[in-house]
Amino acid sequence: MAAAEACVGQVVLPGDVLLLPAHPDEDGERLRLGGGAAPRGRLLCGPGLRRCAAGLLVTKCGLLRHRQTGGGAAAGGAYWVDSQQKRYVPVKGDHVIGVVTAKAGDVFKLDVGGSEQASLSYLAFEGATKRNRPNVQVGDLIYGQFLVANKDMEPEMVCIDSSGRSNGMGIIGQDGFLIKVSLGLIRKLLAPKSEIIQELSQLYPFELVLGMNGRIWVKAKTVQQTLIIVNILEACEYMTAEQRKQALAKFSGN
Amino acid sequence: MTRSARASSPSSRPAMKATPLSNCERRFLLRAIEERKRLDGRQCYDYRNVRVSFGADRGCCIVELGKTRVLAQVSCELVPPKLNRPTEGILFFNLELSPMAAPGFEPGRQTELLVKLNRLIERCLRNSKCIDTESLCVVAGEKVWQIRLDLHLLNHDGNIIDAASIAGIVALCHFRRPDVSVQGEEVTVFTPEERDPVPLSIHHMPICVSFAFFQQGTYLVVDPSEREERVMDGLLVIAMNKHREICTIQSSGGIMLVKDQVLRCSKITAVKVAEITELIQKALENDRKVRKEGGKFGFAESIPNQKITTFKMESAAVDTNNVEEQAEEIITKADPPSEVFAKPILHTPGTAQIGEGIENSWGDLEESEREEAVEEEGESEATAFEVQKMETEDTSTLREAEKDEPIVLSDSEEEEVIILEPQELPTKARPQANLKQENTSKKAFNKRRRKKRAVR
């Protein structure tokens, strides 16, 4: 058993048990799952970690990450495992891209790449009423957010935020192209000030929608330009930052 | 391995649904095909990279066709022959689509696709009479060899039939059955230690080549990928051997094909089959040599490991205070430079491949960009080659820079350390110059290609 702090940035494997970090204030030791603002010194258990009697049990293989949450208490912060996988597991609040597979009564069934299809009410669009239904066809792409994502229940999506605004969500246009990449790459692209996105945006204008379920929708002016972006994004999976910069420099130089 | 897969019990849980194809994907693919563009930067008549690797046992191989992978295993046993054919051995072919290949596949279920593929394999390998079944007879009417070919799809990225037919024939060519002797009534089966196992007698190697048709046959694409298969209107599969004899031809999808089109397809097939046959023979020869010399062979040796570099830790700030101590440390613990970066293609024993296939498809993009400008076609091969060269050149310049202090770099993290040193600055300009050089040489390379095409 190793202390959790010592393992940050290292590879952990399922079954590893990490010792809880030493906590100066005893009351702040309770563990909570998921995100959200944590009080001082509180420890958060992110994806790939589970609390067990002895400490933290690792359930995925990957790199152990740690982030100090605000306040700066020595023992607090969030721990999670950065793992490489392709299969998406719905998480409440995630923005994903789904494909409409069926229209059943007043709900649409969406394929989001999870083990089960998600349901989306036709009322969960901005400005939708019983009279004014959104025009959704089978096969359309929808960018939405998970409202309900439980282990044993059908996930439920919405295309509006809590104030009823669309906030960028809704039906994605008929043009463009959809690709699937690993979840790790999506997280990397969605990171604030992602280098890849910044470098790409200097090439030429294009539209991009990133779903946490590993799907990316791309649209540029021509088929050719779209294909270029698609291939760059797919190639990013297997390149180091160094290689990417080199290749992009070569690309924009031509 | 094959046995356990076959014995998988029907699970109570239903298989996952296959990912549906969205309208925008369909539309985009069709538009791209109209513009004669393909997702991976191939031309309409280009085949994906084919790689053949052999297992440790005889008669076992994996064939990769782009990202499609098929595992083949041949086995044999002595059985009584069929009543109506007492002097002929028995051939048995079986292709299986496991959910490992694509989430939509269910184990042990006879889907329409599976039946169609099995039927095609059978027609390609059995009905073309490529294996001499009479030579499999041990005692007429009593004992014959039954040769069983199991094919497993490991990953599905389109064109299963081509990959399966290549894997099947390679495995059959690679297979050795135990030697037998008949003295009177007594049949002796020799172990490999007693007598060398004997190969099957194979007359020719039939190989399938698939053509996908779009817009009622207006557009034609060779070796369709999974997404192209989903939007195609019709499929034409031609099995041919290198003597240009058509072994099987099948058109599905119900499209009307013009005579010229079929003739054109058969001509393309002849070219592709010649290439693939040569590759197979080279791979078999390579494997034979390695086994004879007692070198390392088998999947563990021949399949290059793919590295995912997305999560690689990058040292953000470099402490330059104790660089010299660090350098000393590196010298003491020096390893040979990591071979992965230097040569992405492993020409290890038991492998052979068409083209220089590495994971990134940078070349293609870059190629397509130029295509816009110069309105010229390129080949991913050429650029992949270039990328590889660039990498090697890069490391070599770095190593040159180290001449004054003989450090052998083993870690990319340490490379950064050295780049940041002030006296190393002039070398930074080097890769750029190399780049330009590369560009010109590539153009020349392309020109050569163009000429070749014109000749063709």
From TrEMBL, chain A:
Domain K Homology: 176-224
Subcellular location: Cytoplasm; Nucleus, Nucleolus
CDD domains hit by this protein: KH-I_Rrp40 (cd22526), S1_Rrp40 (cd05790)
Exosome complex component RRP40 N-terminal domain span: 10-84
Repeat recorded as keyword: no
Keywords of the record: Acetylation, Cytoplasm, Exosome, Isopeptide bond, Nucleus, RNA-binding, rRNA processing, Ubl conjugation
Matching InterPro entries: Exosome_RNA_bind1/RRP40/RRP4, KH_dom_type_1, KH_dom_type_1_sf, NA-bd_OB-fold, RRP40_KH-I, RRP40_N, Rrp40_S1
Subunit structure as annotated in this protein's UniProt entry: Component of the RNA exosome core complex (Exo-9), composed of EXOSC1, EXOSC2, EXOSC3, EXOSC4, EXOSC5, EXOSC6, EXOSC7, EXOSC8 and EXOSC9; within the complex interacts with EXOSC5 and EXOSC9. The catalytically inactive RNA exosome core complex (Exo-9) associates with the catalytic subunit EXOSC10/RRP6. Exo-9 may associate with DIS3 to form the nucleolar exosome complex, or DIS3L to form the cytoplasmic exosome complex. Exo-9 is formed by a hexameric base ring consisting of the heterodimers EXOSC4-EXOSC9, EXOSC5-EXOSC8 and EXOSC6-EXOSC7, and a cap ring consisting of EXOSC1, EXOSC2 and EXOSC3.
Annotated family: Belongs to the RRP40 family.
Official protein name in the record: Exosome complex component RRP40
Native species: Falco tinnunculus (Common kestrel)
UniProtKB/TrEMBL annotation, chain B:
GO MF terms, alphabetically ordered: mRNA 3'-UTR AU-rich region binding
Residue stretches of biased makeup (Basic and acidic residues): 388-406
SUPFAM superfamilies documented for this protein: Ribonuclease PH domain 2-like, Ribosomal protein S5 domain 2-like
Alphabetized UniProt keyword annotations: Cytoplasm, Exosome, Nucleus, RNA-binding, rRNA processing
Subcellular location: Cytoplasm; Nucleus, Nucleolus
Gene Ontology cellular component terms for the protein in this record: cytoplasmic exosome (RNase complex); nuclear exosome (RNase complex); nucleolus
Region (Disordered): 375-456
Comp. bias intervals (Basic residues): 444-456
Pfam families xref list: RNase_PH, RNase_PH_C
GO BP term, pick one: exonucleolytic trimming to generate mature 3'-end of 5.8S rRNA from tricistronic rRNA transcript (SSU-rRNA, 5.8S rRNA, LSU-rRNA)
Keyword match rRNA processing: yes
The keyword Nucleus appears for this protein: yes
Gene3D superfamilies: GHMP Kinase, N-terminal domain
Top-level taxon of origin: Eukaryota
First-listed, main subcellular location of the protein, grouped into a coarse class: cytoplasm
Domain Exoribonuclease phosphorolytic: 47-178, 204-268
Homology family: Belongs to the RNase PH family.
Name recorded for this polypeptide: Exosome complex component RRP45
Species classification: Eukaryota, Metazoa, Chordata, Craniata, Vertebrata
